[in-house]
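Please describe what follows:
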Amino acid sequence: MAASSQGAAAVPLRPPLPSGNGSDAGVAAEAGNPKMDVERFRHRVDEYICKADELEQKVNEVVEYYANRKQPNNSKGNSGGKDKDKRNLVIVEATIVITQHKWARPFMNPVDVKGLGLDDYYEVIKKPMDFGTIKNQMEAKDGNGYKNVREIYADVRLVFTNAMTYNDDRSDIHVMAKTLLDKFEEKWLQLLPKVVEEEARQKDEEAQALANMQIAREAGYAKIARDTNSELDELNVHLEELRKLVIQKCRKMSAEEKRKLGVGLSALSPDDLNKALEIFAEDNPNFQTTGDVVDVDMDAQSEITLWKVKFFVKGALELQAKNCASKADDNLKRKKEICDALAKTARKRNKKLSSL
């Protein structure tokens, strides 16, 4: 599609204006001093830009949320003290039986490595453990305690396996540790059904809590999306009113400016030309935009339409020039890289020839 020398164009959109007490009609009524008008319009545009930035941030939050909502949530909420007591209840039953045994005393506190002169203890035992340490871990409230009963079970076993590993199997400590470990394992097997039941209950509660959180978050972001869409519609209305008001303030376009506008239209890309012709059609329903050649009678167009076209053409041509400059820079860079590569290859070849 081509345009005659008369041409067509469109106005580049600016950010919408927030609604307020002072309407655009009020601005028009107060207008009189051109400089004051410009300042008023500039102030309005600044308000639009500020509001648009706020809406953009909301939109980005919604987009980011829906882009990431299918990713697994690895965060786990800290369980309260009552829930922790419930989780530990089963293992407490087992440990109480063991710690109350008459042979449990040697295992209640950390091994006195220095006092007993056990110089090689830490070489043999990589992770020391005792019931005092286990108790502190079970009562920890800083989030560093046990996460589940199986961790406690593992440390209780570690108390006895450490003693059995370091001490000879005929020593009293070894025999005491093995006896208590057997009793503990027996008690653990009796309580294991409760452990499984508690783990299943906890898993269901966590899954339900995550589902409720997901529903609440989706509802919140859906509301943000609806509100933002409504605000954008309202701002677009205000923007269109302001654009029309600004164009109405424009002076009458001269014949030379109309001629240059036609020249500018002929320099547009096909897509931009189609957009320009659509602007003519917006203000003139009878305007025909189909056909290989579209004739535009500039003198038959309203001043508002002509200035819309002028603003659009100016913005489109500036963008085209910027893109062309960018492509030219890319081509120049590519040529330089090729020349550098050829020069490097030539230097290598000459070096080889000189070494022969």
Q: What stands out?
A: The chain is about 70% helix and 0% strand. The longest helix spans residues 172-248. The beta strands are 2-3, 293-294.
